[in-house]
Amino acid sequence: QVIAVAADHDTYVVNAELNPNHVPEFPYDSWDKAATDIQSAIEAAGAGHTVWVSNGVYGITEQISVTNDVTVKSVCGRAATEIRRVNLDKSSKKIIQRVAYVNNRKARVDGFTLACGRNRYETDVAGYYPASGSGLLIARSGGVVSDCSITNDCVAFAQFVPGCGVGIYGVDAVLTNCLVTGWYLNGTRCRGAGLSMTDGLVT
């Protein structure tokens, strides 16, 4: 009989470009065994624990999703740790290329630059535009994002979306001590180039 045991540990992430000889080893519970991609470390972390992310630029082609009860925290802050969406499709008319998605009221993301997402969508689904927040979406279950810079420096604009940079849609959603810069919109159904919210708190 196989008994599943819930993870009960922090996890760690190192940048592969800055550590080319590093070999990750599940469950990524020490710097020696650290993951080289943030999403794997998030999924391996125990509830209530922390995903520690070392310095560097982390290029991603799928959004970082934080839907479990974890804190994702950089070691040295947003000036030293960047999550960047790469290989953007700038031509498709219906596409989600978000940097980060948070949807758990106990989740926390702290101390990152979130750079260069591009969303486009034309239909309002379940009361909010699913394309909101090319840089960051804090969805209906909430979560806290703090000390981050959500920025667009890749000359990619969003169309037909509210909140090009950041979307906040949960009562338990909190954005605190963050910078939102460089976002702009193109389209007749757009609103809030930097941020759009229906619930939550911004401080």
Description:
By secondary structure, the protein is mainly beta. It is 3% helix and 30% strand. The protein contains 1 helix and 17 strands. It has a 7-stranded parallel beta sheet with strand order 1-2-5-8-11-14-17, with helices on one face. β1, α1 and β2 form a beta-alpha-beta unit. It starts with 10 loop residues before the first strand and ends with a strand.
Number of beta strands: 17
* Mean pLDDT over all positions: 87
Largest sheet: 7 strands, parallel
Termini distance?
50 Å
* Spatial strand sequence of the major β-sheet: 1-2-5-8-11-14-17
Overall morphology: globular
| Helix-strand makeup class | mainly beta
Strand content of the residues, in percent? 25-35%
Low-confidence stretches: 1-5
Order of helices and strands: EHEEEEEEEEEEEEEEEE
What Rg, in angstroms, do the CA atoms define?
Answer: 17 Å
Query: Helix content range of the residues, please?
Result: under 10%
Number of helices: 1
